[in-house]
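Quick one: co-fold with 1,3-dihydroxyacetonephosphate.
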Amino acid sequence: MKTTFSVIKADVGGWPGHAAVHPSLKEIADKKLREAEENGLLKDFYVASCGDDLELIMTHDRGVDSTEIHSLAWDTFCEATEKAKELGLYGAGQDLLSDAFSGNIRGMGPGIAEMEFTERKAEPVIVFMMDKTEPGAFNLPVFKIFADPFNTAGLIIDPSIHDGFIFEVWDIQEHKHVFMETPEEMYDLLALIGAKSRFVIKRVFPKKTSKLVAKEPVAVISTEKLYQIAGEYIGKDDPVGVIRAQSGLPALGEVLEGFSLPYLVSGWMRGSHNGPLMPVSLKNARCTRFDGPPRVVALGFQLKNGKLTQPVDLFDDPAFDSIRLEAQHITDYMRRHGPFEPHRLPLQDMEYTTLPKVMKKLQRRFKKIK
Ligand code: 13P
Ligand code: 13P
Ligand code: MG
Ligand code: MG
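Sure, here it is.
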């Protein structure tokens, strides 16, 4: 049977500043989604948060881009925004860019990762939620999971994944996409996705030789670019991703291993700094130091007939302590750069800048160099 797995998220108000989501917003989301489950629209759901982002994890049979599902998410975010206003939470309604819902939530502010697929006998699904960074932050981990044999042993020793995978990459500046196969096109793929503010992995598919159903995604990442939508800064587009695992796919541990490098991603303070991506538990998904550092949470479910088990908080594990410690050392080191690149982002990638004003003020004092 086919199930649609939808994760839709938005920042509708921070508690305090941009640190976390207030429990009363999660209560509203819980109530709205429970009603939808009782009405038969949803098969199951789970409400979570990462930093100041409210995350709706939903299963149903309406397919991707369903008006009913998107409008449920939109109404939930609107109701939570009202509560956020009432409580005086920070930046209430930050990610809701329009007053009117027109059938599809895409381009309206929230981030969306959705895929429809045929459930296998046992279907492990992991939801990754990030705060204080951008969709390109998924590029390195997803590449490692599906294409790097030093990460994923199965690419070498498991005949069912030895042929590799197909990556769908979006050029988010030109609004184009391309499908590339690994291992054959690995170097070309890396040439693109290393430029993570422009080229982002949107989906991963099995190859024809796989026993999984062709053309059904095995991973999907949200790729909304808030600043492109709004034309001005209104918060980084903190991304979410959904990855299936095992039986013809990387094992759960190979998927998590993709996050074992706290590599530098952009976002953090004022969406204008590079910092290490730190894997944390749900309880530590609060962005504090310099509004960060950027964080990623992983919730693992088993899916059966559209129903979800309780999640396992996968990074809530001492095995990731050394990675967190490394992220903390990198945080100290990067912070000591203060306003200097590469801690502060290059001019074109900054969400905030005073440079035009500074240049204007100094205009008359700038003299030609002889
Ligand atoms: P304010 O100027 O509203 O304080 O916003 C700055 C900010 O929150 C960026 O992190
Ligand atoms: P969010 O995108 O998570 O709201 O963070 C905004 C910010 O500028 C933090 O400093
Ligand atoms: Mg915020
Ligand atoms: Mg956020």
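If it helps, Residues 11, 18, 51-52, 94, 131-132, 235-236, 238, 269-271, 291 surround 1,3-dihydroxyacetonephosphate (ligand 2) (CB under 6 Å).
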